[in-house]
Amino acid sequence: xxxxxxxxxxxxxxxxxxxxxxxxxxxxxxxxxxxxxxxxxxxxxxxxxxxxxxxxxxxxxxxxxxxxxxxxxxxxxxxxxxxxxxxxxxxxxxxxxxxxxxxxxxxxxxxxxxxxxxxxxxxxxxxxxxxxxxxxxxxx
Amino acid sequence: xxxxxxxxxxxxxxxxxxxxxxxxxxxxxxxxxxxxxxxxxxxxxxxxxxxxxxxxxxxxxxxxxxxxxxxxxxxxxxxxxxxxxxxxxxxxxxxxxxxxxxxxxxxxxxxxxxxxxxxxxxxxxxxxxxxxxxxxxxxxxxxxxxxxxxxxxxxxxxxxxxxxxxxxxxxxxxxxxxxxxxxxxxxxxxxxxxxxxxxxxxxxxxxxxxxxxxxxxxxxxxxxxxxxxxxxxxxxxxxxxxxxxxxxxxxxxxxxxxxxxxxxxxxxxxxxxxxxxxxxxxxxxxxxxxxxxxxxxxxxxxxxxxxxxxxxxxxxxxxxxxxxxxxxxxxxxxxxx
Lengths: 140, 337
Hints:
Chain A contains four helices and no strands. Chain A is mainly alpha-helical. Chain A is elongated and about 75 Å long.
């Protein structure tokens, strides 16, 4: 092996070590996020099931979720006013946010590695995610 | 909380009035007296002037329904993790065929649970050191854009067509999982595009560290866009197709493909989740038992996985998937969904 090959291999090793560390941190973060989301959903579920356990249910026909549970703002508002469905939906929103947080974290991690190309790729992914969560109701 | 809930639940009479009014849709949850009204509401439904009343069609109350859906989701998550076939893929048929849930609510609940399994099991996968974050992140550009397209399509494609696509997807994923394909390793020179994208890597193997190169990036990118679109359209993780793109097209080692796929599934699903949310597909009262069931089931499944031989179980679960696929296909073709 000549010198450029060796430096290339070395670079790859350093990159992998970095990636592995980054992945570990992200994984812990994700697990914490999922656990938090699940706890919030459970809290909402206890309220919901306790309020009218014997009511009838049907999901046979679709009429869409009530408007206040369709936007980030509405969900937060509903949850903090103590509505059971709002609290459950907030938990689900936290769950949806976990992969987004992961991507945000990756932007910084790639920036620390000075990997401009991957910072750019990650930002593209992040903007698609943010558009879906905050902008999609514009055309929906 | 108690008074607030009571205020928001209209009495049967109020519901009927509101419905006839056409001013707003009644809520699905209501007090127990609603059950008595079901006969009348079904007749009203046929008159086409009114909307169906939110009442029990199967004689289950909230508590019973939630418990049954939770149990079913737990089993789906457990078997999905244990067999590596993914639990998300059977959730939609489970909800639509056995619980008579509208396809859109089922897709919404399934998608949310897909995020839960992906994020929840990330720690277990990362510890093994197989996943390649660069491959994942680059391909996520394709999957998230595809997912966005798929989620928009869900509103414009008729439910029966979605059911047909779903059926085909189920049968295909069972087929992919059953196939055992010994890949002949022919050393090729590294691909220049993959090298520029810094995708080549290594992973711990039984015989020390194994190096690998990545090939055919554009083909993989294209398949990933399709996988994302299917994920957004059907509310599934489409892990089978993601693995096909990486393992078959890009020649990434199987272990690296499966773990990187798990990492990508959550991000892909989050891209369509926002659209689903704003469309009202995500109903918290349904998604709650589904998400909690699948999450607990899949965490249990990954624990057990380490010390069980799953070959026969895999076969049985594949058969279940095929049967559900045929059922979905038929329901879609006959327009019964």
